[in-house]
Each structure stands twice: as structure tokens, then as C-alpha cells.
Specification:
Blueprint (H helix, E strand, L loop, with lengths): L13 H7 L5 E3 L2 E3 L6 E6 L4 E7 L3 H16 L8 H17 L1 H12 L3 H22 L16 E9 L2 E5 L5 H15 L2 E6 L5 H13 L6 E5 L2 H10 L5 E5 L2 H10 L6 E5 L5 E4 L5 H13 L11 E5 L3 H14 L18 H16 L3 E4 L14 E4 L6 H4 L6 E7 L5 H8 L4 E2 L1 E5 L3 H10 L4 E4 L14 E2 L2 E2 L12 E9 L1
Parallel strand pairs: 6-7, 6-9, 7-8, 9-10, 11-12, 11-17, 12-15, 14-15, 17-18
Antiparallel strand pairs: 1-2, 3-4, 5-21, 10-20, 13-14, 16-19
Helix pairs in contact: 1-4, 2-8, 3-5, 3-6, 3-7, 4-5, 5-6, 10-11, 14-15
Length: 502
């Protein structure tokens, strides 16, 4: 067992500390269990690089155990026969338990992921609670319809929506608790059973959530939670012939591999993948709000957001003002461990991610980008990177074309004579299409521009606004399908048409 958490950060509360120092196990078929191979792996504090604890290293044997448990729960357990209102009540109970443990989950998320605990407390945990509550209402509202036939009135035709079955869900490390909620909520509401594979970098809140799922009274096998690595755990889960659907959130590169893996039994696939989202500032925008908003769009969550505003386009008449404003904000951001209540920007999640982001910074400098703020690591311990503003960039540079997934924005100007079509072409010049933000007082221009942007979400005079009722997902190589809102129910249901001759 690793050293006690106070050696890592004495600000960790008693409940979170007790969980960190407990024995961590997989959750399969309603039981907490060690991995079949007995192996464990270390979880690290990104603020220090030190080990926090050990968690089980699941492999294909554990995947098979979990899939068969989920299969039994779906095919012959109490879950398929359970009244939809009862499923909703269980989800409400889970939301209540999670809300009761808000501080504990916020601290665990901060310790494990590095994000500021102040943010986790007001965003990650409450949004997860809200997602479970919102989706619980859909458990009784998965509706079909009656359809009049051209063949005449001698037939009654109607559709029903049925749960798709056993679902493999693989979540990322940037919002571990929230992504677990995004995935579990609609699957449970529609009557599916789940195997949830946690990111190996950030398993703690998912393992704690498994305890709440057990406490809430979900039947055995309905939710199974695994910790492990991609090749020995994630890959066999995505490929398993008794899985009916896989839902993945993560990088586009891995998403493509999962899509290929799923072809064995033609299981359904939804993918929420990467982004290189534009933030577009028009000259008539409320400049103070636009500068602050564009800074938040890229520096929130250390830039580790798939929809981060990582490409900035500002009109040439305000470009210098925008760059100066964002650089000033970057220079004043309080960098530190996530559990420090004063911290505004924590470390990146891992050494691997730190190396990736600093590699992009070097590439940008080597290719001629101007560093207006940041550009280097922060301190000499942990995985901290300075919030960075780069200008003098152009398409073809790695920092412009590729997803960095760190607190790094690349800024370009657009000319006075650039019409909306030309500007949209610049904004759309990417393989991704996840999100965008538009900053202007001209509401007509905002709506016209929103129509031209090829992205699943367009924010006007804001960025990173989420709600359980709003669908979220991408165009192009940003993925397939949508999370949240009524749209997500389509991911977890099959439509059956029934026709009766009267």
C-alpha cells in the first residue's frame, strides 16, 4: 500500500483520506473483488508525481466476468422486468447519495486529476448529480408512436423503443466523475446494463461511485466497474461478442481503433472525440467579456477539454488588444496543487500528458510561433505547464492543426474585408467539429455565423456552458452520436415497428 495521503497533501478531508487508504477493488456482479490475476497498478498525484494508492489491474478474464454479469442482468435478472419508475427512483437515490458526498468527491477528483477543488465542488460534482436526476426522468418517457399507413385503415402500426442491451462504456481522465455520469445516466434510464471502464490515470471517483451504486440498491450486474489499461482491458471489452454497444469518450486516434474493433459483431458505437475549437471575436464585441471568455475557454481545466477554445480568431482591429488582455490574464493565473483552495490552474493529469504538451510548445517555438505568455513548464515538481498564448501562427504548424489538450491557445487575426463565408472557412479548416464560440453584439451576424460553423455546439458570447438537457457531440472526426439531452436516448435504444392487421 502506498504512503498515507497526508504525505501527499494534508488538506485532504477525512472521508476522502479514508477512501484513498482503503483497499480498492473491481465491482462485478454486485460484489467488490480483486482482479483475477491479482495485479495492481499505481495511481499518481499529478501535483507531485508521487503515488497515491494502488488499484486492481483488470484483464480479459475480468472483462469476461463483467460482461457475463451484465448479460445475465439484462437477459434474465430483475432489471428488464423492473418498472421504469423504479429505475428512475434508483437513479434519484444515486444522485442523492452523490450530492451528500460532494466535498469528498470534489477532493478525490482534485487529488487524482489535478483540477482545482473549488472547480470540482461547483462544477464536476453538481453537474454529475444533475445529470442523474435529469436522466431519471427519462426512464418513464422513452416513447414510441403510432403511424398511419398508406395501405389503409385495416392496420394498426406503432413503434416501441427498447434498450439496446449490454453496453461497454470507456471514459477519459479529464472529467472522470462527470463522464461516468454522462455515460451511466442514459444507459440506466433506458434499461441497459453497463460495464464501465475507468481511465487508468484517474480511477478514484469512479471506484467510489461504484460503492454508492451498490449502496443505492441497483441489482447485481446492472453496473460493473473495471480499472485497467487499454490493451488488456479496454480492447477486449470493446471487442467482446456479448456486448451490444460501446460508448467511448477520448482521443480521435483511439476512437478509430474502437470503431474497427467493434466490427466483429457489428455492435453499435458512439464516440465523443477530440476538438480544435475556434473562438471568434468580432470587433464590436464587449471586449472585456470576450477576452475573459476566450481565456476561460482555453485555460479552464488546464485546457484539458475536448471543446477548449484552442484556436483564437480576432479581428485585426482588436487583435493586439485581445492578445495583450489574454496574456495579462495568463500571467496572473494562480498555478498550484488542486487541493489548494486558491489554485486556479492545476497540473496536467500525468507525465505522459506533460511531455505531450511541452513537446507541442517546443514545436511551436521551432516553427516560428511568438510566445506572448507562458510557453514553459511551471516549477520543477509535478506536471505544471504555464498558461500559454501563441501568435504568429498559421495552418500547417502542429500547434495549429493538432489537438494539444493543454492550456495553449494559438491566435490568428482576420481582415476587415473577410466576409462570414471566408471567416467560417478559416474556422472550419480542421478535421474536428466539436464546438465553437462567437463573440459579438450583432445578433444577426451571430446567428448567420452559427449556421456556417461545422460543429455540434456553438456558443454565442459564452463558452463551456453545459446542461443535462443540451445535446453535446461533434461533426467530422469529433465523433458519432450525442451525449446528454433527449438525443442521447437514441444511443441506447433500438426502434421496433409493430404492425397488426385488424
Amino acid at each position: 500500500m502506498a504512503a498515507a495521503a497526508p504525505a501527499i497533501d494534508p488538506r485532504l478531508g477525512a472521508d476522502a483520506l479514508s477512501f484513498v487508504n482503503s483497499r480498492h477493488q473491481l465491482y462485478i456482479d454486485g460484489k467488490f473483488t480483486a482482479s483475477s490475476n491479482g495485479k495492481t497498478f499505481a495511481v499518481y498525484n499529478p501535483a507531485t508525481g508521487e503515488e497515491i494508492c494502488q488499484v486492481p489491474e483488470a484483464d480479459h478474464v475480468d472483462v469476461d466476468r463483467a460482461v457475463h454479469a451484465a448479460r445475465r442482468a439484462f437477459d434474465s435478472g430483475p432489471w428488464p422486468a423492473m418498472l421504469p419508475s423504479k429505475r428512475g427512483q434508483l437513479m434519484q437515490r444515486l444522485a442523492e447519495l452523490l450530492e451528500q458526498h460532494t466535498d469528498e468527491f470534489a477532493e478525490l477528483e482534485s487529488l487524482d486529476n489535478g483540477k482545482p477543488v473549488s472547480v470540482a465542488r461547483v462544477a464536476d460534482v453538481p453537474l454529475a448529480v444533475d445529470l442523474f436526476r435529469y436522466m431519471s426522468g427519462w426512464s418513464t418517457k422513452t416513447l414510441g408512436s403510432t403511424i398511419p399507413l398508406s395501405a389503409g385503415n385495416d392496420y394498426l402500426s406503432y413503434t416501441v423503443r427498447e434498450p439496446i442491451g449490454v453496453v461497454a462504456q470507456i471514459i477519459p481522465w479529464n472529467f472522470p466523475l462527470l463522464m461516468a455520469a454522462w455515460k451511466l445516466g442514459p444507459a440506466l434510464a433506458t434499461g441497459c446494463t453497463v460495464i464501465l471502464k475507468l481511465a487508468e490515470q484517474t480511477p478514484l471517483t469512479g471506484l467510489r461511485l461504484a460503492q454508492l451504486i451498490d449502496q443505492a440498491g441497483f441489482p447485481p450486474g446492472v453496473v460493473n466497474v473495471l480499472t485497467g489499461f487499454g490493451e488488456p482491458c479496454g480492447a477486449p471489452l470493446a471487442a467482446h461478442d456479448r456486448v451490444d454497444k460501446v460508448a467511448f469518450t477520448g482521443s480521435t486516434e483511439v476512437g478509430k481503433l474502437i470503431a474497427k474493433t467493434a466490427t466483429g459483431n457489428l455492435k453499435k458505437v458512439t464516440l465523443e472525440l477530440g476538438g480544435k475549437s475556434p473562438a471568434i471575436i468580432f470587433p464590436d464585441a464587449d471586449m472585456d467579456a470576450a477576452i475573459a471568455g476566450a481565456a476561460s475557454a482555453i485555460f479552464f481545466n488546464q485546457g484539458q477539454c475536448c471543446c477548449a477554445g484552442s484556436r483564437l480568431f480576432a479581428h485585426e482591429s482588436v487583435f493586439d488588444k485581445v492578445i495583450d488582455g489574454m496574456s495579462n490574464i495568463a500571467a496572473k493565473i494562480k498555478i498550484g496543487p488542486g487541493l489548494d483552495p486558491a489554485t486556479e490552474l492545476g497540473p496536467l493529469v500525468s507525465e505522459e500528458q506533460f511531455d505531450r504538451v511541452t513537446g507541442f510548445l517546443k514545436s511551436g517555438k521551432d516553427q516560428g510561433a511568438k510566445v506572448n505568455a507562458g510557453g514553459n513548464r511551471s516549477g520543477d515538481r509535478g506536471y505544471f505547464v504555464q498558461p500559454t498564448v501563441l501568435s504568429d501562427v498559421q495552418p500547417g504548424m502542429k500547434v495549429v492543426d493538432e489537438e494539444i489538450f493543454g492550456p495553449v491557445v494559438v491566435a490568428q487575426s482576420f481582415a476587415t474585408d473577410a466576409d462570414l463565408d471566408r471567416l467560417a472557412a478559416q474556422a472550419n479548416d480542421t478535421i474536428y467539429g466539436l464546438a465553437a464560440s462567437i463573440w459579438t453584439r450583432d445578433i444577426s451576424a451571430a446567428h448567420k455565423m452559427a449556421r456556417r460553423i461545422k460543429a455540434g455546439t456553438v456558443w454565442v458570447n459564452c463558452h463551456n456552458v453545459f446542461d443535462a438537457a443540451l445535446p453535446f457531440g461533434g461533426y467530422k472526426q469529433s465523433g458519432w452520436g450525442r451525449e446528454m439531452g433527449a438525443e442521447v436516448l437514441n444511443n441506447y435504444t433500438e426502434v421496433k415497428a409493430v404492425t397488426v392487421k385488424l
